[in-house]
Amino acid sequence: MFSKVSVIGLGYIGLPTAAVIASRGIDVIGVDVNQHAVDTINKGEIHIVEPDLDIVVRSAVMTGKLKATVTPESADAFLVAVPTPFKGDNHEPDLSYIEAAAKAIAPVLEKGNLVVLESTSPVGATEKLSGWLAEARPDLTFPQQKGDGADIKVAHCPERVLPGYVLQELVSNDRVIGGMSKSCSEKSVELYKTFVKGECIVTNSRTAEMAKLTENSFRDVNIAFANELSLISEKLKINVWELIKLSNRHPRVNILNPGPGVGGHCIAVDPWFIVNSCPEESKLIAAARNVNDGKPQWVVEQVKQAADQFKKPVIACLGVAFKADIDDLRESPALDITANLAQDDIGQILVVEPNISDLPNQLAEAGVELVTLERAMEIANVVVVLVDHKEFKAADKTSFAKKVVIDTRGVVA
Ligand code: SAJ
């Protein structure tokens, strides 16, 4: 029975998870090092953007089921959802946030507690987390010492929700649960069953870690294939969108969409965890990463060539978010491309981004202007489609015919 659950890290995964668990009538203590985030949540408001999250958080806080704090307190279970970025040229995973979380919860751990790592992690991170807990609490036993009989149960259950659909996917997605022992898995399933309608599938912690990395690498490799086709098609004067549509008519072919590069905080990061741990064996995964990372610069070069045709180029960049129909600009190739164009001073740069009301400083300070689609189509001579937002898909395509168009998303093509 779980009457009190603590969620460590109240970001894009931790906050929705905390709110959903609270909505099931369980007391939830959300812990974050960011005092501003804690204060915002305790007012029933949110500091991140995700559809309907504001409603669920407000109701959880108002009913007293969700409380945020900077200091961990005792609970039946602890879910750790902190960032795991990479550092340095070798893309080494940075586990410092997990280590800090372990040190923060160790003093309040009690016999019978469950600790679940949800952060996307390199293989072996859950065992490391358990090691840090054991170091801090020699009075308790952990699965690496006592297996099923340990005082504290430890597991990995990677988050798999798609930004923009987090609240639905938190409940409906299947969960992979990797306990450090059988009893660790069983206790975790019991916890997840309180709010997950999908299946909870049990494995060990290392396989669960690798499963998450594999999912995002699968996606990255397949997007890289599409991006590589877009470079080849440009050279061979073939419309890549038509090419993919035709190839996908084969019953066993399903090519993804090329784009300006891979953005977001997951797909462009997670494959490096595999490459870093097995560089010799991960040649395809590393090559895919490099193809996707190289795409923004290729787009910049295409735009420069197009702008060269005009005396006074006016370039409209359609979209700066990292993918369609969201306002998230973090790790966005579209934003990078636009910033690069502005920096290189190749002409007047306009941005159309229906999901934001102010440009980020980086663009505003470089003289970039945020305009409506109508205005952009009036004055631009080069139009660069960087995001397939619904507004661009719905636009009258005849107006594009008069422009030089670089369409990285197949919206006009
Ligand atoms: N993209 C393409 N072509 C495509 C599909 C995507 O260029 O055909 C680009 C998008 O424009 C975007 C990037 O890839 O820049 C990533 O977008 P996404 O929608 O594919 O994925 P994310 O990063 O928003 O979320 C992913 C999801 N993983 C998978 O679909 C395997 C999500 O389920 C994970 O929970 C999330 O990563 C995560 O947190 O790891």
TrEMBL record:
Keywords: NAD, Oxidoreductase. The keyword Oxidoreductase applies. The keyword NAD applies. It holds the Pfam family UDPG_MGDP_dh_C. Belongs to the UDP-glucose/GDP-mannose dehydrogenase family. NCBIfam families: NDP-sugDHase, PRK11064.1. This is UDP-N-acetyl-D-mannosamine dehydrogenase VpsB. It comes from Vibrio cortegadensis.
